[in-house]
Every structure is written in structure tokens, then in C-alpha cells.
Amino acid sequence: MDTALYSKRRRRNVITMALAYGATGFGLSWLVLILAVLLWEGFSGLSLSVFTEMTPPPGSAGGLLNPIVGSLVMTIIAVLIGTPLGILAGTYMAEYGRYDKLTMVVRFINDILLSAPSIVVGLFVYEVMVAQMGHFSGWAGAVSLAVIVVPVVVRTTEDMLTLVPDTLREAAASIGLPRSLMIQRVAYRAARAGMITGVLLAVARISGETAPLLFTALNNQFWSLNLNAPVSSLPVVIFQFALSPYKDWQKLAWTGALIITMAVLALSIVARILTAQRKTS
Amino acid sequence: MVDVALQGTGISTAAQVDRAKVLQRLRLSDVAFRHLTRAAAATVLVILGGIIISLVWGSLPALRAFGFSFLYEEVWNPVTEKFGAIAPIYGTIVTSLIAMLIAVPVGLFIALFLTELCPMWLRRPIGIAIELLAGIPSIIYGIWGLFVFAPFLQQHVQPFLITVFGEIPILSTLFAGPPYGIGVFTAGLILAIMVLPFITSISRDVFDAVPPVLKEAAYGLGCTTWEVARYVVLPYTRVGVIGGVMLGLGRALGETMAVTFVIGNAHRISSSLLAPGTTISATIANEFTEAVGDLYTSALIALGLILFIITFIVLAIARLMLLRLNARIGG
């Protein structure tokens, strides 16, 4: 018996397993650290005035009302544009052309768009809308967010519709439902939870997006719901305030960061619960 | 058959006409819906085409003015309108390399922990926690990096690195002082934290796809957990792991906000990793709205085009790798 070899192998195993434990601790500690600092800094600045007052001029106190509303409006418009487009595209890929060439190409491109740099989307919308219209606008911001929504919704819609058992489709067809009705009344209903999850994930994704808004919606110090003019948004305000030398602004940036993170975490948890229900039922 | 039967029972012709009308309408809506979804699917391609065309169109003035020298010139001077992209390209690649050097081994070890060591009841919570880390918007990493991480590095880590590596030939130039806090090194670390969840969750998924029989056979031969991971799991999932790593690399290359906060936005290549630098995306984010003059704007769009081409290639390779793995598991 070569005990030296055995102990060497065991030693190596112990070391690497310790590394695995260490790596997991390392990875999770970042989550804890970031959330702890965020909660600490964010809650210390959180008050009612954050939700009722406008962004202040440098050096004075104020709130985040206009960026919060601006973000909400642009997010809603982006979802209204991006979701139907994404669901229809995903429907084609899962229902009509599951095996055809168009679907394969679209799936490949969509997966790339899913992780393409969002700042490039901002440049694209700048060229197409801002440069043509001659001014920054909330519409341009909403469209650039919609461009980010589409791939997320396409992906989840296709995945969820593919999971719907074919027997359901056959049953619907056998009672004489035309294909379009079968999709709308049967397949959509069966995949509903998953498709809603996709939309929620898309909202979570765009609610923190900053890069595409920087030069499409720009920013606005004042209360404005005019989508033809620059519109304020939370991420851009955080960016601007955090890099400023004013303590009041930096505090507001932290509070804004806390609001965004809580919204994103809440959305992803709801999404998770929805998918968990679908799996158990 | 049905129609014949109905006719036989003597149902009125009016009902038959109604029925034909309904069927006609259904057929029409069926065709319309089909074409609608097809058009929507094609829109995805239109978006990609639009991005490429608009970027090329926007960068034409700069490319015409500087030609290929745009790719290797270091000068970036808005006043004299001389622009070269090598400093941001260098920054983008170096920060991503630092990120991958840290995130790949750590991510693989976490995936190994989650698939082999972790007790069942703990797997889901830890998996969810890692995915939450992936869901945190990049601007949060940015503000945290600027106010918490960079000062910490400046006071505690960087002076240590400078003294420790001060005598070693190559490392002493890489870690030459002074400790700014913000810089290429800090940006690379933040990127590492950001891409870690992507690499972890994809590696975990591909590790999970290894047939249990293979692992059990190796365990049955008396292999240690590490040997199973090294000689069974990794070879089986190599393509998928590389795909996941490339996906993380694609994210790191294009990441904007987290980097913009902590890189210092300096258009020069310095030998020290601790010095401020810039990346393509940080340059665009910092300067685009302030860019005066068509040539300046065009140079920034040309930077965007370069970034898009690089990430497109990396992401395309990543997807092809993952497709190959799926094909093998499926077949």
C-alpha cells in the first residue's frame, strides 16, 4: 500500500474543498457587504420629503419626486412598447416556426442582444431619435429602455411556451379551435405565470439601467411630464449626485440607490414566487 | 363530413352562410396573427441591423478623418480634435482581464460547492442569493465602489501591495504608487464582483447537467470529490464552462456604470494598474453629452462601434459554445 499517495490525494482534496467553501463565503460576503452599506446609508436619508419634494439645487435639502415619477413613466412606456413585441416574437418562435431558419437566427441574435452593452443601445437611440428630432426627450429614453425589454421578454416567452405540453395544443385543435385562438386561449393561459415573470424580470432589468438614459432622456432639474423634453430619472440622478461634491446630493444618491435596489429585489422575489408556483402546480 | 351531415338535416341556408362567414373570419384572423408574430420576430433582427447601421453611420466622420490610426493612436484631445481609441480599448481589455482572473476560479469553486458539497436544504437559498447579486443594478455597484470600496482599497490594500511588490521586477511596475483608490485595478475588482454571479450560475447549471452515473462511477472507483470534479465534471462540461466564461467576459467588456464611477477617466495608458485609466463605455458615458462638435461626437460613436463589435464576437462565441453543449446533452 502506498500510503504516501493516499495522504497526498486526501490532502489535495481537503485543500480544494476548503477553497470551495472559501469561495462561496467570499461571493456571499459581497452581497452582505453591499446590502449592509446600502441599507445603512440609504435609510439614514430616507424620509417622507424624499417622495414629496423635487431634486434640490446644490447645497440644500430636497427630495427625489421628479426622478421617481420620470423613471416610472418611462418604465411603463418601455414595457407597453416592448412587451407586446416581445411576446409576439416569442410566440412565433415557439408556436409557428419552432424549427425554421428565421427562429434559429432570431434566437441567436436575441441571446446576443440580451447581454449586449446597454450603452450601445443608448447610442443607437441617440442616432435614430435624438439626433433626428434635434433634442433630448423622454420618448427617446422610453424607447431605449424598450429595446432592452424586448430580448428579455422574447426569451422567457419562447421558453415558457415551449414548456407547454403538446397534448394541450392537440386537444384544442381537436375541438376545432383555429391555431391563433389555440395560442391565445390555451397556450398563453398555460404559460401565463412564466410570461408574467419575464415581464417582471424585464422591469427589474430596466429600472436600474443608467447608461442608455444618459444621452436619450438626459436629466431635468424640475417637475416635467412632457415626454418631448428631457425627463429626469432615478439612475441618472444618482449618477450625477453621487459624483458631485455636495453632501446633501450624495445623501440623496444613496437614498435613490436604496429605492432602486428594493424595487429590483422585490420584483425578482415576486417573479421567483410566480415560477415556483408554476412548478409545484 | 360535418357539413354533409348538417345539410342532410335540412338546416336553413342562412345558418350555413353565417357559418361560412365565421370560418372565413377565423381563417383570416389566423393568417393575420401568424404574420403579426412573424413580423415581431423579424423586428429583433431589425433592431440589430438598426444598431449596426446607426453606429457605422455615426462613426463615419471620425473614421474618415483618422482612418486606421484611430485604432492605435493614444491622443484624445477635444480641443485640437485629435482622437485615438487605444487608451480606452486598453482599459476595457485590462479591467475585464482582471475581472476574469478573479471571477472565473471563484465562480467555478462556488459552482463546485453548490453541486457537490452543499447540503440539499442550503442549495436553493445560496443559489438565490447569488442570483440576487446578479440582479443588483450596476449603478449600485458604482456608488458602493466610489464611496466604500475605493477608499478602503486606498487606505488599506493598495499601500500594502505597493510595499510588498516594490522589490519584485515586473510586479513593481504593475503596482507602482501612489494609491489613488480609483483606477484600473479598482474597476477590475468591481467588475469581478459583478460578473461572478453570471459565471457561477451558468457553471452550476452545466455542472448539474452531468449525468449522475458518470460521477457515481468515479466515486465508486474511490475518487475524491476534487478528482471527480477535475477529471469527470470539468472535462464533460468544458464547452459549457467556456461559454459561461465568455458570457461573463461579454458583460465585463460592456459594463458601463460600475466602471465609470471608479476608473478615474484618464485618457492614457500607464504601466501601473493602480493609476486612473478609462474604458470605452466609461469614456462614452462621461463625455457624450458634453461633446461639442460633430467630430468629437462621431469619435465617441466610433468607440461604441468598436465596443459593439468586440462584445458581439465574444457573445457569439459564448452562445455557440453553449449551443454545442446543449446539442451534446440533448443528443
Explain the layout of strands and helices:
The complex is a heterodimer of chains A (281) and B (331).
Chain A: H1 3-44, H2 48-52, H3 65-96, H4 101-114, H5 118-133, H6 138-163, H7 166-174, H8 179-190, H9 192-207, H10 211-214, H11 234-242, H12 247-280
Helix pairs in contact in A: 1-12, 3-6, 3-9, 3-11, 4-6, 5-6, 6-9, 7-8, 9-12, 11-12
Chain B: H1 2-8, H2 13-66, H3 69-72, E1 76-77, E2 82-83, H4 86-117, H5 120-135, H6 138-164, H7 169-174, H8 184-208, H9 212-220, H10 225-254, H11 257-262, H12 280-287, H13 294-330
Antiparallel strand pairs in B: 1-2
What would your notes on this structure say?
Chain A is mainly α. Helix content of chain A is 78%, strand content 0%. The longest helix of chain A has 42 residues, at 3-44. The termini of chain A are far apart. The relative contact order of chain A is 0.14. The mean pLDDT of chain A is 90. With 331 residues, chain B is mainly α. Chain B is built from 13 helices and 2 strands. Chain B has helices at 2-8, 13-66, 69-72, 86-117, 120-135, 138-164, 169-174, 184-208, 212-220, 225-254, 257-262, 280-287, 294-330, and strands at 76-77, 82-83. In chain B, strands 1-2 form a two-stranded antiparallel ribbon. The longest helix of chain B has 54 residues, at 13-66. At the A-B interface, helix 1, helix 3, helix 4, helix 5 and helix 6 of A face helix 2, helix 4, helix 5, helix 6 and helix 8 of B.
